[in-house]
Amino acid sequence: MKRILWSPSGLKTWPRPRGYWPLRLLRKWAPPQQRCAHTPVHDPSFASILDQPPSLVRIGRRHGPGIIVLALIPITAFALGTWQVFRLGRKTELIAKLEDRLVRDPLPLPPRIDPLAIKDFDYRRVYATGRFRHDQEMLIGPRIHDGNNGYLVITPLERDTAGSTVLVNRGWISKNLKRQADRMEGLPKDQVIVEGLLREPWKRNMFTPENKPELKEFYFPDVEQMARLTGSQSVWIEETMMPDLLIAYDREARGIPIGRAPEIHLRNSHAQYIFTWYALSAATTVMLWMVIKKPPSEITRKVRLSKQW
To answer: What are the two backbone dihedrals, phi and then psi, of residue 169, each rounded to the nearest 5 degrees?
Structure first.
């Protein structure tokens, strides 16, 4: 084996015997600066891993566009809940105002009524005297009463003293008694006194079919249309009666229309809507917080090294 040794005259190469003493002296007397010149610990700018530990970071985007949608859900739900609070206040005031009209004594129906003023007297108890025009009777249906199918009987009331005619919703009859010949007891011919509630014209929803007056098929009470067909005023009165089960059974068997009870039938479910929207807002807020605070998964973790290493 050949070895390279240092000598004053330069480098020389010759076979080195085992345990050659000049080589041991050279290693012993060599300056320590030459042996340790490239050791990192002696470098003033060196920083170890203990001085600058690595940090865990997530690669790519932390949250996508879905976080914006998730943030909008609790805000929207809270706004809808607040809107329902205001609606609950308005509906409560409206029901209180209508109930105050119900407890008042009935008013005689004026000869002529301005259709624009009816909204200020909605659910007001009134009474009128006249004769029913059974030849112009209209049936609205189908309508369900206590699980039975039937129709609402709409008959113009001709008032002799007032010289005008109004539309009266007399109540419900069974489907089996649709023909007038089968319910003669429910067709009074003498003068009658009708007491009921003055109501605003109805509004048809998008799911209700159009009336077919030429076929005498009516699906909803279009007051203006019915008034034109019968030459009446656009005034709608709903005949009332005290709720009594035995009287209702007797009327149904005899073909006499069953009138409605003098009560307010306005749906007021805004308190449930308030609870639903606020609960949804709270739940989605918690979900949003959990998504934001969720630690990165093992797949998205990565060690960030120091740039000074």
So the answer is: -90, 100
Predicted TM-score (pTM) of the model is 0.68
Q: What is the C-alpha separation between 102 and 225, in angstroms, rounded?
A: 28
First to last CA, the chain: 40
Phi, psi of 129 (to 5 degrees): -115, 140
- List pLDDT tens digits, range 262-293: 888 888 889 999 999 999 999 999 988 888 88
| Long-range contacts of 82-89, Cβ-Cβ distance < 8 Å, separation of 24 or more | 84/270, 84/273, 84/274, 84/277, 85/270, 85/274, 87/270, 87/273, 88/268, 88/270, 88/271, 88/274
| Neighbouring C-beta atoms of residue 156, cutoff 10 Å | 25
Amino acid identity for residue 138 in this structure: M
- Could you give the count of Cα atoms lying within 13 Å of 196 in the half-sphere of its Cβ? 23
- Amino acid identity of residue 41, one-letter, is V
